[in-house]
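Final report, Chapter 2: Outcomes

The project's central promise was a pipeline that accepts a single protein chain and returns its three-dimensional structure in a standardized token representation, suitable for archiving and comparison. That pipeline is now operational. To close this chapter, we reproduce one record exactly as it appears in the project archive, with the input sequence first and the structure output second.
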Amino acid sequence: MDDNGLPQPAGPVRMCCICRRRLAKADLLRHVRSEGEAGNGLVPDPKGRMPGRGLYVCGQAECRERFLRYGDRRKKR
């Protein structure tokens, strides 16, 4: 059980960078920064093996939409 009395998921736990909920790593999509020809953008890493620090996003539609806007904003810098 965690501090809120909710059961902890089995295995590694990560936090959605948008809604801040803690979920099993398998339930989140990892993104890493890409510094290739396409510029500095965030690219999905479904296998979780790309180098770099990852950002995790849950499957809620609102979180995915907000994350896409966040990634677009980072590209303009």
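Archive annotation: DSSP finds one helix and five strands in the chain.
This record, like all others produced under the grant, will remain available to the consortium after the project formally closes.
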